[in-house]
Design a protein that fits this description.
Layout (H helix, E strand, L loop, with lengths): L3 E10 L3 E11 L4 E5 L6 H9 L6 E6 L2 E2 L10 E4 L11 H11 L4 H14 L15 H13 L5 E5 L7 H18 L2 E6 L2 H7 L2 E6 L2 E6 L1 H6 L4 H6 L4 E8 L2 E4 L2 E4 L5 E7 L4 E5 L5 E8 L4 E7 L3 E7 L10 E6 L3 E4 L2 E5 L1
Parallel strand pairs: 3-8, 3-9, 6-7, 7-8
Antiparallel strand pairs: 1-2, 1-4, 4-5, 9-10, 11-12, 11-14, 12-13, 14-20, 15-19, 16-17, 16-19, 17-18, 20-21
Helix pairs in contact: 2-3, 2-4, 3-4
Length: 344
C-alpha cells in the first residue's frame, strides 16, 4: 500500500511570492493523479516539494503515514522523472539505471537482474550498452522512467516528461506510461499543462490556479461539469459569454435563451460540440471561418458586439464564410461569482 497525503502545504519564495497556497490532496494506493494548470499555477513546485527538491514553507507531506516533509530526496520512497531527462551522458544506459542501486549496496547479480527487467518493461531490452546520446528523445525518456522504476519507489513523480517530444511520440509514450503504471499499480503524481495528457491518463485531475485548487475530479466530470469559469475555459474548448439574466432568460449579443436562475449578471458556457447550427436569412451569427479536420469541422462564428464562438459540425462542407446562421445549444452551463449555478 502506497498512499500520498499532502496537507495544507504552502510555499513562499523570497520577496513574498506565494507559489503554493495551503494545498491539500490525498492520492490513493495505485492511483494516477494529474496536476493540471497553466504556467505559474504552482503544479511543478508542488511536485518538487513531494520529491524533496523544494522545502515547504508550511504544511505536512506523508507517505503511508510517515512524515517526509523535510527529508532529502535520497531518503524518500519516491522516484522522479524530469522533463529534461537528467541522464548522465558519460554513462551508458545500464550504468545510468544501476547507479542508484549501487548506492544502496545492491549485489551485482541483483543489479543486473533488476536493470534488465526494467529495460524490458519500458521496451528497451538490449539497450544497456548504448550511450544516452545515441538514443532518440523518446528512448531517453524511457531510460529516465526506467531509472526511477528500478529503485521500486512507493510514489512515482512525473514532471511534464513528454513536453519536449513531438505530438505523435507524446501520444504513444503517454499510453505506454499509463500501461506501465497500471501494470505496476504504482501510485503516481503527474504534472502537465497539456489537457489531452490529463484527460487520457489520469484517474483524477487537479486543476490548479495561482497555487490553489480550482477543481478535483475524474477527467470526464472535469470536462462535462466544470465548477468554475476558469476550469470551463481551461479544459477543452468552451464558448464563454458574459451577459444578463432577466425573468429567467439570458440575453447578450443577439442570444436569448431560457436560464432558470435569479436575475443578474451571468457567464454562459457552451461546448462547440453541443452547439447546433442552421442556415437562416437573418440569423444570430455570421460564419467567419470553417476548418475541416477530416473527422469533423470547426466553424468560427461572429456574433454582434464583436463576440466570436465556435461550433463543431459533422459536415463542414455545408458551411462557408459569410453565411448567416442560427444557434441552438443542446447543453449549457452558467456561472456567477466564480461558481457554477446552473447546468443542463
Amino acid at each position: 500500500m502506497s498512499v500520498l497525503k499532502i496537507s495544507s502545504v504552502s510555499k513562499y519564495f523570497p520577496g513574498g511570492t506565494k507559489a503554493v497556497d495551503s494545498f491539500s490532496l490525498d492520492v490513493a494506493d495505485g492511483e494516477l493523479v494529474c496536476l493540471l494548470g497553466p504556467s505559474g499555477s504552482g503544479k511543478s513546485t508542488l511536485l518538487r516539494m513531494v520529491g524533496g527538491f523544494e522545502d515547504p514553507s508550511s504544511g505536512l507531506i506523508t507517505i503511508d503515514g510517515e512524515d517526509i516533509t523535510h527529508l532529502p530526496p535520497e531518503r524518500r520512497p519516491t522516484g522522479m522523472v524530469f522533463q529534461s531527462h537528467a541522464l548522465w551522458t558519460h554513462m551508458n544506459v545500464f550504468d545510468n539505471l544501476a547507479f542508484g542501486l549501487k548506492l544502496r549496496r545492491t549485489g551485482k547479480s541483483e543489479i543486473r537482474e533488476k536493470v534488465e527487467a526494467v529495460l524490458d518493461l519500458v521496451g528497451l531490452a538490449g539497450y544497456g550498452e548504448r550511450k544516452t546520446h545515441q538514443l532518440s528523445g523518446g528512448q531517453q525518456q524511457r531510460v529516465a522512467l526506467a531509472r526511477s522504476l528500478v529503485l521500486e519507489p512507493k510514489i512515482l513523480l512525473l514532471d511534464e516528461p513528454f513536453a519536449s517530444l513531438d505530438q505523435h511520440l507524446r501520444e504513444r509514450l503517454r499510453e505506454e506510461v499509463r500501461d506501465i503504471q497500471q501494470r505496476l499499480k504504482i501510485t503516481t503524481l503527474f504534472v502537465t499543462h497539456g489537457q489531452d495528457e490529463a484527460l487520457s491518463m489520469a484517474d483524477r485531475i487537479v486543476v490548479m490556479r495561482d497555487g490553489r485548487t480550482e477543481q478535483i475530479d475524474r477527467p470526464d466530470v472535469v470536462y462535462r461539469n466544470p465548477q468554475t469559469p476558469f476550469v470551463a475555459g481551461f479544459i477543452g474548448t468552451m464558448n464563454l459569454i458574459d451577459g444578463e439574466v432577466a425573468h429567467g432568460r439570458f440575453h447578450r449579443a443577439g442570444l436569448s435563451l431560457d436560464l432558470p436562475i435569479s436575475d443578474g449578471p451571468a457567464i454562459l458556457a457552451m461546448r462547440p460540440e453541443a452547439l447546433d447550427l442552421s442556415l437562416a436569412d437573418q440569423g444570430q451569427a455570421v460564419v467567419h471561418r470553417v476548418t475541416d479536420y477530416g473527422t469533423h469541422g470547426l466553424v468560427d462564428l461572429d456574433l454582434p458586439e464583436a463576440i466570436r464562438v465556435k461550433a463543431m459540425v459533422d459536415h463542414p462542407d455545408r458551411f462557408s464564410t459569410g453565411q448567416s446562421v442560427n444557434l441552438a445549444p443542446r447543453a449549457v452551463a452558467a456561472f456567477r461569482d466564480g461558481r457554477q449555478v446552473f447546468r443542463s
